């Protein structure tokens, strides 16, 4: 499987996903740190990919949705943007319902909703 296929699989299998430098617990850049903190503030589970640990993803992710920078946040399979956009959505109160809906939709589609 090539890098773009792997990226696509990550995006499609995680209702909320951040491609970042480092991990949510140990981010390796300020932008990734602030973006991960915004997602944590929503209190919903989210996936992450440490682009520094996978050179192929690091090289190919900017081509996936024509977004040149890291981090990149995907919700329900769609790129919502990077750090600034994610923080703006959080401040406007739009990030929380967006990620909650994506997680709920994934749970309903997998038959695990209660």
How many DSSP helices?
A: 5
N-to-C CA distance? 35 Å
CATH superfamily grouping: Glutaredoxin
Helicity level: 40-55%
Can you describe what's shown?
- The chain is α+β, with helices and mostly antiparallel strands and 114 residues long.
- The protein has one domain: Glutaredoxin (3-Layer(aba) Sandwich), CATH 3.40.30.10.
- The chain is built from five helices and four strands; from the N terminus they run H-E-H-E-H-E-E-H-H.
- Strand 3 and strand 4 form a beta hairpin.
- The longest helix is centred in the C-terminal third of the chain and has 16 residues.
- It is globular.
- The N and C termini lie far apart (35 Å).
- It comes from Halothiobacillus diazotrophicus.
- Pfam families: Glutaredoxin.
């Amino acid at each position: 499987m090539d890098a773009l296929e792997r990226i696509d699989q990550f995006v499609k299998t995680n209702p909320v996903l951040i491609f970042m430098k480092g991990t949510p617990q140990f981010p390796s850049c300020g932008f990734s740190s602030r973006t991960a903190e915004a997602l944590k503030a929503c209190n919903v589970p989210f996936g992450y990919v440490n682009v520094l640990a996978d050179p192929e993803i690091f090289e190919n992710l900017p081509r996936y949705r024509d977004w040149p920078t890291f981090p990149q946040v995907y919700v329900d399979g769609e790129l919502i943007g990077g750090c600034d956009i994610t923080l703006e959505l959080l401040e406007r109160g739009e990030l929380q319902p967006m990620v909650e809906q994506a997680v709920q939709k994934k749970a309903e589609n997998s038959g695990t909703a209660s």
